[in-house]
Amino acid sequence: MNQAFREAANQIRQKPVKLTHNQEVARLYRKSLKTLCSWVIDRDCFLERATELRGRFDAERGCSNARGVRLLREAKAELFEFTHPDPYCVPYMPGGSLFMRNPPPPLEICFPDGDYPADAPKHTMNPDMTICRPETGKSAVGGVLVDFGKKNME
Is pTM beyond 0.90 here? Predict the structure, then answer.
């Protein structure tokens, strides 16, 4: 990538949201389940492995702050090690077969005079068809950088 592209990408990229330790652990658990879903195809086997994974998380609940930070760092390294080379992605997310297939047009284009009907949606949609909320860290105000190599949005 050249310098101009990197600078443009940095302007579009959204600022990361500051998370608490509990939020980081919850996101790590969710990412772990998604990674497990990419590796394990059989549903019964997936449920068994997911129960084992939940047990690993529950065994360390209530540990000291320093131990929690160390465990979180080690768990992120383990998750990176077990990341699937071609992960399963939901069809409407980046890399999926339905991604932005039928995006809703902006209301400004549908109603150029600004006279919106009463039943018109009053929210903005993200490219993955979720509702924009600043507290989630995904807000389509401005631009969203879609990385098709990583199959995610930044």
Answer: no
